Amino acid sequence: MNKISAVKAFAGEQIQYEHQSDTLNCTMKFSVFLPPQAQQHRVPAVYWLSGLTCTDDNFSTKAGAQRVAAELGIALIIPDTSPRGEDVPDDPDGAYDFGKGAGFYVNATQAPWSRHYQMYDYIVTELRELVERELPLSGERSISGHSMGGHGALVMALRNPGLYRSVSAFAPICHPTESPWGRKAFSGYLGDDKAARTDYDATLLIKERQAAPPLLVDQGTADNFLAEQLGTDALKQACIAAGIDAQVRMQEGYDHSYYFIASFIGEHLRFHAKHLSYFGKK
Ligand SMILES: N[C@@H](CCC(=O)N[C@@H](CSC=O)C(=O)NCC(=O)O)C(=O)O
After folding, report:
1. Per the domain annotation, does 280 fall within a domain?
2. Residue 25 sits in a domain of what CATH number?
3. Average pLDDT across the chain, whole number
4. Structural domain of residue 251, as residue ranges?
5. 167 close to ligand 1 (CB < 6 Angstrom)
6. Domain count within the chain
7. For a pocket test of ligand 1, which of 52, 98, 258 has the largest count of ligand atoms closer than 8 A to its C-beta?
8. Residue 62: CB within 6 Å of ligand 1?
9. What percent of the chain has pLDDT over 90?
10. 200-223 mean pLDDT
11. pLDDT at residue 281 in the model
12. Is 281 a member of any domain?
């Protein structure tokens, strides 16, 4: 992987890399925050999955996560949201909710998407193995995300018990098979395969598996997408029915934006730190 840029932040380093992805068949950029502790010893990581229209830049520049990550000694791994490049097909109508910037963290099975749109395998396997080989990371990890990225984080944590110590999400698409965004994306990337759709729906996964890692969700009550797209209550009810001690918190007056994320990202990182035993230690 090649370093594109690096700046000092909170005594650590905010870095952008690019690399050739064999999983996505294209060149990808991603960002990393290394806390100052990484200059002395390996540190745990929180993977952050962004939402529709984002690149790795949105979270890096808008969430204000670096101050608390530096304090806790946690690295932040911030991928892009879809494959990129001229060879990668995009939504024919230029829609913001499908194609580039909208990979939905699935492994597409349908042409022409399947050659590049393999974001589930990219995040769970290829990027993880790359950064944990090349960077001073301890191999202990948690995962978080926003909206489409919250959906991705929940699904990856639920489907891979033990891989992530904890999972959190801001305004996640909790029940994508019942959401217009999710239905559109799943139809395009997965076709009619009902089993594949179930495997990418956090609410259905909880009903099926009756288990989850430590889980925190924050959802703003003034979020324009809440009623139609997000299915927060379905996730909450599935957790209650399964006896899962998840925190699903409604945050009064907050919307869907990065101002909401910036308001609570510190609490999310502290939540993850409790489950990442290596933090701050040799
Ligand atoms: N452009 C669209 C909405 C796009 C949007 O709100 N994107 C969110 C994520 S939504 C779910 O995945 C986002 O993170 N945007 C980037 C940012 O920096 O705010 C519309 O206008 O409806």
Report:
1. no
2. 3.40.50.1820
3. 97
4. 2-275
5. no
6. 1
7. 52
8. yes
9. 98
10. 97
11. 46
12. no
